[in-house]
Write a structure and sequence with these properties.
heterodimer; A: about 290 residues; mainly alpha; MetI-like fold; B: about 300 residues; 2 domains
Chain lengths: ~290, ~300
């Protein structure tokens, strides 16, 4: 009985902290709960919170920003691969480069945001530096205008995530069969053709993992927004995660916040499903190879 | 499972492919200078923010207003650091971020103990003992490791408030233990499942029980994975903002919350050098862990990839 007994706490946490809690939030999104939970279904229709949500301009902005942020931060994967390919080749200083590229991972997103906010400061930061160099038309005050503020957040996200994707890519590169390199050398295949034609297709699973992890991270993007712009200017840098917290803590509207959280869950599951399928496929392939 | 893939490939990666790498380097030597230059540029992009923050934190405010962001301080000063620690204004009070530092430690220690004790035992039971619904449970945990925090936040706040733990360090620690349990359990389970069953069976024959085997055989074998998990947890909990914000109330705010209050939301005078000193102080503990235990750190972060 001891194993079952030992599993009880974890099971209880899963059932209460995840299964029940998710069910509770989904149920709340059908009610008109405001500051306190109200357990009656909304008389105006059980989907009325969702109708309000999708009629909300800030929510529309949040969803658009989600896509912008995902596409923008995907650069971190591309650069992560390029850097991994280069660092792996570069015998000289591989350790040093690795250490430098990876340290932002240890820094919290709040600190990251504050640091980049300081770099973007128009009168004291990089813009001022460029002006002093004589390039007076340079604009680096991205966070102040709604059109460019998201790019500032993207830049900071890339800075923070670059090393992580590089580490994943390095792991992927090093697991590639070593004979491919010598085979390519004997055949006289050029470096460009080798990478685009052989290496990248072989690493498609690594790329997909990176893409899924990036998307999941983007859905959760909250800290970095708070630290860099606090949602501003206006609501131009809101994300779904920011929207849900704001609906709860500022608008004190549990029903509305729950509806936003449920949409976040649906987005997560939509991203997550391919990962489950791929893992299953990989396991089957590995088993097939093992027998 | 994904975490398994990451840890395995990282471990395998460090040993494989040395001779081939040497061959490759000979083959493509021509473009080496360009590659090195590109790497240096990228390294500068990554390193410059740290440099700027450190330099700024040692400058007197008059030097900062000149706007030479990349210049070294002309006259070095350590006062911003003392101000950040002792007298910086954070929201309502002006007694620096030292209280946040203590709160963060008070949150970190119980979170570490709770989550590691819980997850290692669960992972051990799922990996090495015949539990009938183990596969289903693992799948559910796998999904739980990915769900966004917002979907469980409000009910958890109600539960913690009903237990009388809202606004206490224990409340935050318990929430951290809940949130990290699925991922840590998967990591432990993937580590323990490679231990041969015969070893356990022999121990059972030797009249060893569940807990005795865990204590005498499993724990002594776990040093490596414990370090990896410890690093993952320290960075996760110390760098967390959202849980501290939503469960800390006003009485148990961790350092990240205090820092964000001071810099982002406070309406008072902005003192850049003090802000930057506070940012560094907040970032120091995980950075120390990173520079001291780099190899394990990479493993921990890639194993914890799911945390995002």
């Amino acid at each position: 009985m001891a194993p079952q007994l030992a599993l009880t706490p974890a099971l209880a946490i899963t059932l209460v902290g995840f299964v029940w809690a998710i069910g509770w939030t989904i149920y709340m999104s059908f009610t008109r709960s405001r500051r306190f939970p109200d357990y009656g279904i909304d008389p105006a229709g059980w989907l009325s919170q969702y109708q309000r949500l999708f009629g909300d301009d800030a929510w529309e902005t949040s969803l658009r920003n989600l896509v912008v942020l995902a596409i923008g931060s995907a650069l971190a994967i591309a650069f992560g691969f390029i850097l991994a390919a280069m660092v792996e080749r570069e015998k000289f200083g591989e350790g040093t480069f690795r250490t430098i590229f990876l340290y932002p991972l240890a820094v919290s997103l709040i600190v990251t945001g504050l640091v980049w906010r300081w770099m973007f400061n128009p009168s004291l930061g990089i813009e001022a530096f460029l002006h002093q160099l004589g390039w007076t038309s340079a604009r680096f005050n991205w966070l102040a205008t709604p059109e460019t503020a998201m790019y500032g957040i993207i830049l900071a996200s890339i800075w923070h995530g670059l090393g992580f994707y590089m580490a994943l890519m390095l792991a992927g590169l090093k697991s590639i069969n070593t004979e491919i390199w010598s085979a390519a050398r004997i055949d006289g295949v050029g470096i460009w053709r080798l990478y685009t034609g052989v290496i990248i297709p072989m690493m498609k699973f690594t790329f997909l993992t990176c893409a899924i992890l990036l998307s999941l991270g983007v859905v959760k993007a909250y800290d970095i927004v708070v630290a860099m712009t606090n949602g501003g200017p206006g609501t131009s840098t809101w994300t779904p995660a920011y929207f849900a917290i704001n609906a709860y803590s500022t608008r004190s509207n549990i029903g509305f916040a729950s509806a936003a959280a449920v949409i976040m869950l649906l987005i997560t599951l939509a991203i997550f499903l391919p990962l489950v399928l791929i893992t299953a496929w990989q396991n089957r392939r590995r088993e097939a190879a093992g027998t | 499972m994904r975490s398994e893939l990451a840890t395995n490939s990282v471990a395998a990666g460090s040993t494989a492919g040395n001779s081939a790498a040497r061959a490759r380097k000979r083959r493509f030597k021509g473009s080496s200078v360009a590659v090195f230059a590109f790497l240096c540029m990228c390294a500068a992009f990554v390193a410059i923010p740290l440099y700027v923050v450190i330099v700024t934190s040692f400058k007197p405010i008059e030097e900062i207003t000149l706007g030479h962001i990349f210049a070294l301080p002309v006259s070095w000063t350590i006062t911003p650091w003392f101000k950040a620690w002792n007298t910086m204004c954070t929201g309502l009070s002006c007694d620096g971020i030292k209280s946040g530092f203590l709160t963060s430690i008070e949150i970190l220690l119980p979170s570490l103990v709770l989550s590691i004790a819980l997850s290692s035992v669960t992972g051990y039971a799922l990996a090495l003992w015949n539990v009938r619904w183990a596969g289903t449970f693992l799948f559910v945990l796998f999904i739980c490791a990915f769900v966004p925090f917002q979907i469980i936040m409000i009910p958890l706040i109600l539960v913690i408030a009903n237990l009388g733990l809202f606004g206490t360090v224990w409340g935050i620690a318990i929430v951290h233990a809940i949130l990290t349990m699925p991922l840590l359990t998967l990591i432990f389970r993937n580590f323990y499942k490679d231990i041969p069953r015969e070893l356990i069976n022999a121990a059972i024959m030797d009249s060893g029980g569940f807990w005795l085997i865990f204590r005498k055989i499993i724990l002594p074998m776990s040093a490596n994975i414990m370090v990896v998990v410890l690093i993952l947890m320290i960075t996760t909990v110390w760098n967390d903002y959202l849980v501290g914000l939503t469960f800390g109330g006003i009485s148990a705010q961790p350092m990240t919350v205090i820092l964000a209050n001071a810099v982002v939301t406070s309406r008072g005078e902005v003192i850049h050098n003090v802000n930057m000193a506070a940012a560094i102080i907040t970032a120091i503990p995980p950075l120390v862990v990173y520079f001291a235990l780099g190899r394990f750190f990479v493993q921990g972060i890639t194993a914890g990839a799911i945390k995002g």
